[in-house]
Design goal:
Layout (H helix, E strand, L loop, with lengths): L2 E5 L2 E3 L5 E8 L7 E7 L6 E6 L5 E3 L7 E6 L4 E6 L8 E11 L2 E6 L3 E5 L2
């Protein structure tokens, strides 16, 4: 019954900000690398940001400097602060938990939240 549920999406104007959250249940995220992905019409899925279980972060070039990924293991939650939003950021955003055990990958995917950037 491992679950990940994203929330916080909505309609915002260009240049605006949103803060997404991903709440985990049924497992502890502390041992997992956590990522945000997004899916837009006509485009392949894009890895937006990743934060490892040790706190290292990576970002896609398209969001570098505008988005910040963070985690709170005590709250069992993942966050994505999105600033200076543009229409190119319009997509469904969802989170993923990954870890390696003995070289084998364990992976969980969550429900997405829609972000629409429009005037």
């Amino acid at each position: 019954q491992e679950k990940l549920v994203a929330a916080g999406g909505g309609l915002v104007q260009p240049g605006g900000s949103l803060r997404l959250s991903c709440a985990a249940s049924g497992f502890a995220i502390s041992a997992y690398d956590m990522s945000w992905y997004r899916r837009a019409p006509g485009k392949i899925d894009e890895s937006v940001a990743r934060i490892t279980n040790t706190g290292r972060t990576n970002y896609a070039e398209s969001v570098e400097g505008r988005f910040t990924i963070s985690r709170n293991n005590d709250e069992n939650a993942l966050y994505l602060q999105m600033n200076s939003l543009t229409s190119e950021d319009t997509a469904e955003y969802y989170c993923c938990a990954e870890r390696l055990v003995g070289g084998l990958r364990s992976e969980y995917w969550g429900q997405g939240t829609q972000v629409t950037v429009s005037s």
